[in-house]
Amino acid sequence: xxxxxxxxxxxxxxxxxxxxxxxxxxxxxxxxxxxxxxxxxxxxxxxxxxxxxxxxxxxxxxxxxxxxxxxxxxxxxxxxxxxxxxxxxxxxxxxxxxxxxxxxxxxxxxxxxxxxxxxxxxxxxxxxxxxxxxxxxxxxxxxxxxxxxxxxxxxxxxxxxxxxxxxxxxxxxxxxxxxxxxxxxxxxxxxxxxxxxxxxxxxxxxxxxxxxxxxxxxxxxxxxxxxxxx
Length: 230
Ligand code: CA
Hints:
The protein is of the alpha/beta class. Helices cover about 40% and strands about 20% of the residues.
């Protein structure tokens, strides 16, 4: 599944090189040359990951990382720092600021993509392309295909995203508001009861293969996806 990566990098050549490579790999790339520019972009939709240069004009990358971590709205966004600095005190400062990983300049685009993929997998498994199999259901996000016992299951976009999120986060209870964030994104205003409509559609799609009971309604709380039918 694709994701949006915000690149905060003041060197135009490096910014462009990263953006081109990300786009080739199927990501959407947003570009900012400074922290204020990045903040302006993030007032709209939030990215799925931030690539953050250490040395930026006006405000340092590491300062921005701390800001993101201290803000309820952005605290869960994975951050990878780009740095030419390798001394230990800087590494400690980066980790203390709450970044998930850092890549030392100069880096190869391949290395950077591998790190992005690893961090996304760790922080948001529903945003990777890995095939997932649970309870006999198999989801292949790269080709957006769901199968069960050899049968194809046709799903709408929202139902697909719900199922993918559930399968990457089984056995946990999610409120309707949380599911809205995951399946509809940050930007859309949708009523919480809309979630119930799409859960019903998802169950209907899973019923012919007998898997509708994997989705559990937890009264007063939300929904939970089970690993198996037992
Ligand atoms: Ca720089």
